[in-house]
């Protein structure tokens, strides 16, 4: 079977959605040549009125897309680096997100914001290594973060078709992941529906984005000790609480691994919700970045503030023992 | 628009605002408003040059723009009073009034935020236009104050609009103050110079005279529709009233009595009124009184929204979210 990388899946989804709906227009910096790989080849196919290279004006082009969307288009913005989301937070959280409610449902803002390469980019230091998905969940902007190529394809397609703004995080740690798959099976994946990435009976490990792959490896390593279920929410907001609840009801134990800063990260929300709704067999644990973390440059330091395999293994073992 | 119609718009905005201030004082409008009194000639003149399908984006001081573009004053007053019969079903209020069926893409509470939205909407309309369109290009107008010209995002929007000859008109209402900051203290260089730096032609016009504003706007509209790109119009005006209806409580002191008197002496209502026969004036005035009496009655008597529906329309897809307490 052919192999599809995560990055290629994004490229394919974009091309397919542009083909099926000519109101889909992509905006971004250096997307004509496809610097990030997401838009490779699309300029030649669709021309410069649908693959629009933007000057370095993130705030303007983010709200420009809002205007386009309110006039009936489906813009997709590619952001070169995740921290641009801080620069455009006003345009996304305070403008695009709020228009539907503030106008009493008179308009909709179907913009997709794609961030290819979120999180640690290995050696890119403080301003290029943020991973702000929890921030968007907090304000209620739909937020997806697939772990696999087929989910990347399917969630990007759904994000583009969705009538609300959607932030699409493609973690840098997942971009190189490849799947063996039949391309004919690629299809939209519904927003808000998680998946059990590995079934198990003793403990539920919730992992997000690239950490799903780490969780699967740890589960395999610990297979002799315990039967570990790995739950991949795929969508950060709205979260698949029913899917998670079903998993925890089976296992009774919970660990969350989340590449967010600890305070107000989605990991804390997951634990709070589960303990409100379930009587767990042991206190849950979470593995996250430290509070308020800024990723330092040196590789050892960068790694020191991201969730590690050792931390996850220890957390699982501790919860299993208590 | 002819002289009488322009007068009618100015008068409608003036009386709408005066009635709205009464409702603020009586507590029917909560949160207050930013009165547009004194600046009505700009909304009337600019919107007088527009078609129904043209687009506007407005500001925190947006009643005039929204009314001049044709929004129903009755539903607008209900919106200010937070009623479910309002333009936005009580979800927007004064700073977010919108009517998309008339191209009114909303007032906006963030200074400078409307420029890029207008540019994007105009770009999209041009892209959507069928090749054989007879009606010509839709134009978008972005209104903003002198304070907004210090916002980076607005200047970024100038750049995009000029680069791509987007049919958008930037209308700066220079009333001399950003809240209490005099324009000289906040703006280096000139406002027209801001636009000219991007190759956007800019004109300064008497913003107290609706016909002057309309004439300059018509030229900008022709330029935009014929594919020659954006323009900026700086309208010199004066805010007769407070920045916001809370200002009298704060007793802010930043304008002298002399200055206020000089500013108020150039009232767009008088300037335009002088061009209209007195019997026409009294007929228009009477019609507007009747209309606004109806607006106030409708606003006050309309039902308040049901708290159970507070988050209706949060998502265009109808997504329902978790409540704040766990039952
Ligand atoms: C970006 C932003 N900064 C500050 C405010 C608070 N604020 C509301 S109105 C205003 C003054 C705006 O001045 P100007 O643009 O000249 O418009 P005017 O009020 O004179 O009509 C300020 C500072 C805001 N709403 N948005």
TrEMBL record, chain A:
Residues 4-177 form the Transketolase-like pyrimidine-binding domain. Pfam families: Transket_pyr, Transketolase_C. CDD domains: TPP_PYR_E1-PDHc-beta_like. The keyword Oxidoreductase applies. Its EC number is 1.2.4.1. It comes from the Bacteria. Its cofactor is thiamine diphosphate. Keywords: Oxidoreductase, Pyruvate, Thiamine pyrophosphate. GO terms for molecular function: magnesium ion binding; pyruvate dehydrogenase (acetyl-transferring) activity. This is Pyruvate dehydrogenase E1 component beta subunit. It comes from Longispora fulva.
From TrEMBL, chain B:
Keywords: Oxidoreductase, Pyruvate, Thiamine pyrophosphate. It holds the Pfam family E1_dh. One of its GO terms (molecular function) is magnesium ion binding. Residues 9-307 form the Dehydrogenase E1 component domain. SUPFAM superfamilies: Thiamin diphosphate-binding fold (THDP-binding). InterPro entries: DH_E1, PDH_E1_Alpha_Subunit, THDP-binding. Its EC number is 1.2.4.1. CDD domains: TPP_E1_PDC_ADC_BCADC. Transmembrane segments: none annotated. The keyword Oxidoreductase applies. GO terms for biological process: pyruvate decarboxylation to acetyl-CoA. Its cofactor is thiamine diphosphate. PANTHER family: PYRUVATE DEHYDROGENASE E1 COMPONENT SUBUNIT ALPHA, PYRUVATE DEHYDROGENASE E1 COMPONENT, ALPHA SUBUNIT BACTERIAL AND ORGANELLAR. This is Pyruvate dehydrogenase E1 component alpha subunit. It comes from Longispora fulva.
């Amino acid at each position: 079977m052919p192999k599809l990388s995560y990055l290629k899946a994004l490229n394919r989804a974009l091309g397919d959605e542009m083909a099926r709906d000519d109101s889909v227009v992509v905006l971004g910096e250096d997307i004509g040549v496809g610097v990030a790989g997401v838009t490779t080849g699309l300029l030649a196919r669709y021309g410069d009125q649908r693959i629009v290279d933007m000057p370095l004006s993130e705030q303007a082009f983010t709200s420009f897309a809002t205007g386009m969307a309110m006039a009936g288009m489906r813009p997709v913005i590619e952001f070169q680096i995740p921290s641009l989301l801080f620069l455009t937070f006003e345009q996304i959280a305070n403008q695009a997100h709020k228009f539907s409610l503030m106008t009493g449902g008179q308009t909709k803002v179907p913009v997709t914001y794609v961030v290819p390469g979120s999180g640690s980019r290995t050696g890119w230091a403080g301003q290029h290594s943020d991973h702000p998905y929890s921030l968007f969940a907090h304000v209620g902007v739909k937020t997806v973060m697939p772990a696999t190529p087929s989910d990347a394809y399917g969630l990007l397609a759904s994000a583009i078709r969705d009538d609300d703004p959607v932030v699409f995080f493609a973690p840098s740690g997942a971009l190189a992941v490849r799947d063996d798959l039949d391309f004919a099976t690629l299809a939209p994946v519904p927003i808000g529906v998680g998946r059990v990435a590995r079934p198990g009976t003793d403990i539920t490990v919730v992992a997000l984005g690239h950490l799903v792959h780490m969780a699967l490896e740890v589960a395999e390593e610990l297979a002799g000790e315990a039967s570990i279920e790995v739950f991949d929410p795929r969508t950060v907001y709205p979260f698949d609480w029913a899917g998670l609840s079903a998993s925890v009801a089976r296992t009774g134990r919970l660990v969350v691994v989340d590449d967010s800063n600890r305070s107000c990260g989605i990991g804390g929300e997951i634990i709070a919700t589960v303990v409100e709704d379930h009587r767990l067999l042991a206190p849950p644990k979470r593995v996250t970045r430290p509070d308020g973390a800024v990723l330092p440059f040196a590789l050892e330091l960068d790694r020191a503030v991201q969730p590690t395999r050792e931390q996850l293994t220890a957390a699982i073992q501790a919860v299993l023992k208590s | 628009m002819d002289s009488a119609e322009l007068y009618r718009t100015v008068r409608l905005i003036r009386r709408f605002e005066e009635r709205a201030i009464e409702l603020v004082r009586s507590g029917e409008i909560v949160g207050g408003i930013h009165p547009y009194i004194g600046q009505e000639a700009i909304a009337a003149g600019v919107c007088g040059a527009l078609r129904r399908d043209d687009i506007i984006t407005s500001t925190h001081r947006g009643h005039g723009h929204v009314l001049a573009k044709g929004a129903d004053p009755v539903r607008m007053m209900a919106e200010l009073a937070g009623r479910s019969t309002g333009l936005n079903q009580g979800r927007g209020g004064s700073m977010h009034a919108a009517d998309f069926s008339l191209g009114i893409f909303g007032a906006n509470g963030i200074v400078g935020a409307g420029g890029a939205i207008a540019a994007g909407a105009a770009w999209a309309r041009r892209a959507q236009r069928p090749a054989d369109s007879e009606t010509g290009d839709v134009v978008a107008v972005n209104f903003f104050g002198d304070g907004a010209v210090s916002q980076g995002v607005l200047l970024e929007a100038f750049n995009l609009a000029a680069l791509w000859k987007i049919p958008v008109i930037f209308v700066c209402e220079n009333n001399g103050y950003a809240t209490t900051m005099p324009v000289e203290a906040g703006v280096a260089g000139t406002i027209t110079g801001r636009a000219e730096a991007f190759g956007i032609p800019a004109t300064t016009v008497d913003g107290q005279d609706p016909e002057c504003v309309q004439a300059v706007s018509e030229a900008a509209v022709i330029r935009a529709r014929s594919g020659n790109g954006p323009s900026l119009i700086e309208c010199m005006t004066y805010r007769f009233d407070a920045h916001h209806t809370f200002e009298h409580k704060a007793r802010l002191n930043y304008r002298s009595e002399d200055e206020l008197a000089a500013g108020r002496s150039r009232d767009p209502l008088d300037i335009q009124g002088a061009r209209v026969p007195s019997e026409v004036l009294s007929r228009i005035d009477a019609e507007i009184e009747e209309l606004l009496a109806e607006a106030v009655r409708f606003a006050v008597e309309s039902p308040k929204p049901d708290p159970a529906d507070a988050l209706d329309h949060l998502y265009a897809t109808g997504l329902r979210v978790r409540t704040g307490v766990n039952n």
